């Protein structure tokens, strides 16, 4: 499958160039000492020794990951654009990678100089970050707007409202269930904890507290496994999350004053995915850009993201008999 | 997915659940790969016993409608290419016989039973838009 990027790759040039400069300079630096200080205290005195390759490996590896994540995030941003808007997110990798490159270059010259203490290499980092950010701002302003075709909206069954009305009349108990469980959630909640547990096992023997912290973070990362479920019953709307089915929202049907379909831009309106809040409303969604907006007698408006907002709307209209 | 439990319905609750899931699968509003609520969440929201939901799910699994594995979400199974097998034929024939007996006992004439079957077939066809 060929994926066409809406956010052009060349907007990442400043960080890619900074990374290439770093790689070239490190590779052409000549022989590096087998053991050198790799970690420093606040006043610049070394407090741990190791191979300098450890430092360069980590900075280059992190930079590559950062660029990849940034490409992904920018693509998400561009696909949600309704018109050209300045993408602040695109500056993320163009700040981080040149910064890492600058610090690494400072470290390289420190290795060459043979000094005892390490002063933080602002002289390298600041100009690199500054230059990269200026170019990145210009590049993002030059970036063309390419409309991303919205996924076609499927026609939902309109009988849902009738069925709800019938259930209400028959005094039957019912539940409408809707879920969002995208693949990325499974990936994050399975792969990341495994990596964390591995890291915890390795660090356990050298630094027990770091092992415990990684273990706890790993366990917490499992919690969202299973995604978001919306359950509508006669008396309430509930949203449950994750493997434990934690109820993150409960709305009484009696408190609902209005329901409508709402389209939104996840990154621009709420800055991401998950449980979000902005000045107007609380939002619960894991994917997509459509949901049902619920206004209520007390408390903030709530937005429930859904893959089938028409069905959810029909159900809520049926229960509340609000049009 | 909408599930409702009606006390006026003479069928036991687990059969009501099975029937509704099957209908939604046949009509295409539930598609292969779609997730079903967990046993606990469904039981909680409907105010029924977890065992009732579990036995409905187990029956649905035995009939190949859903996939149910330990520790995994219940999902609608990919439908086997519908072939009218001999065993399925026997099963349906027996259930039909039971139904006919019920109908005759209730005082329905064979002709009005036939009429009823045709009506329902037509209604289902219309509802599922076939």
Report on this structure.
- The complex is a heterodimer of chains A (323) and B (130).
- Chain A has 323 residues and is of the alpha+beta class.
- Chain A has three domains: 134 residues; 111 residues, PH-domain like (Roll); 44 residues.
- Helix content of chain A is 47%, strand content 20%.
- A five-stranded mixed beta sheet of chain A has the order 7-10-11-9-8, covered by helices on one side. Chain A has a four-stranded antiparallel beta sheet with strand order 3-4-5-6, covered by helices on one side. A two-stranded antiparallel sheet of chain A has the order 1-2.
- In chain A, helix 1 packs parallel to helix 3, helix 1 packs antiparallel against helix 4 and helix 2 packs antiparallel against helix 3.
- The mean pLDDT of chain A is 87.
- Chain B has 130 residues and is mainly alpha-helical.
- Chain B folds into two domains: 64 residues, Arc Repressor Mutant, subunit A (Orthogonal Bundle); 42 residues, no CATH class.
- Chain B has a two-stranded antiparallel sheet with strand order 2-3.
- In chain B, a hairpin with a 7-residue loop joins strand 2 and strand 3.
- The longest helix of chain B has 20 residues.
- The two termini of chain B are 21 Å apart.
- The relative contact order of chain B is 0.11.
- The chains are: A alpha+beta (323), B mainly alpha (130).
- Chains A and B meet through helix 5, strand 3 and strand 4 of A and strand 1 and helix 2 of B.
- Strand 3 of chain A pairs antiparallel with strand 1 of chain B, so a sheet runs across the interface.
